[in-house]
Amino acid sequence: MAAEAPLAGLVLAGGHSRRMQRDKAALEFGGETQLARAMRLVAGCAGPAYVSVRPDQRDEAERGRYPQVVDRLADIGPAAGILAAFDARPDHAWLVVAVDLPLLDGGTLARLCAQRDPAAVATAYRSAEDGLPEPLCAIWEPAARAPLAAFVAGGRSCPRKFLLTHGAHLLDLPVAHALANVNTPTDYAAALARGGGGGTP
Asked: Which phi and psi angles does 8 have, rounded to 5°?
């Protein structure tokens, strides 16, 4: 079995929030922003923890409260944040969590960390909807860095497709709705109606 690399945390908050029409990182659930909540959960499982940002977001008030990893590549989505994290700490594995998962709970992250397979490129949950890998609540191992960079250099940038073709270790979700994300005002209203939290806060 491969030795475990140290685990750092990364909250992906570099998106444009176009469908939401407002910054998803600043949306509030239970008295805290999505970014604050995600950083708290990630820091409970991995340290140090960083927020992933675009270069133009570095000085924003919400993101400026936290240590940052700044994207170096533009217009490729979450893969930019993951690659920037590996550039910053290539000897670390990364617990990667999207900022827009208001129903994510500490127990779901704890199980992910407990079931980590350092011999795989990543450990991720299967989607409760289609069984495909959930790359934005996953542990990405250092071994993923070179093939992910080659994947992106080849014109592909979907982290889910990368995990599908590179042998990720997949787990069943303990709480089916834990990784429901909020992309639109309707999604946000539904998450608020559900309570803005799932399981252990």
From this structure: -105, 165
Give CA–CA dist 89/18, Å, rounded: 30
Buried b (16+ CB within 10 A) or exposed e, 152-169: beeeebebbebbeebebb
Q: What is the pLDDT of residue 105?
A: 94
- State the helix-helix crossing angle for 34-43 and 106-114, rounded to 10 degrees: 40
User: Within the chain, which residues score under 50 in pLDDT?
Assistant: 1, 196-201
By the 10 Å C-beta count (0-12 exposed, 13-18 middle, 19+ buried), 85 is classed as: buried
Domain boundaries, the chain: 7-194
Contact by Cβ (8 Å): 108, 174? yes
Q: How far is CA 138 from the centre of its chain?
A: 7
- For 159, the token pair is 């982290």
CATH superfamily of 7-194: Spore Coat Polysaccharide Biosynthesis Protein SpsA; Chain A (3.90.550.10)
20 Cβ contact list (under 8 Å, min separation 6): 27, 182, 183, 184, 185, 188
Q: What is the pLDDT of residue 181?
A: 86
- Answer yes or no: are the C-beta atoms of 103 and 194 closer than 8 Å: yes
- Report which of 139, 127, 99 is spatially closest to residue 17, judged by C-alpha positions: 99
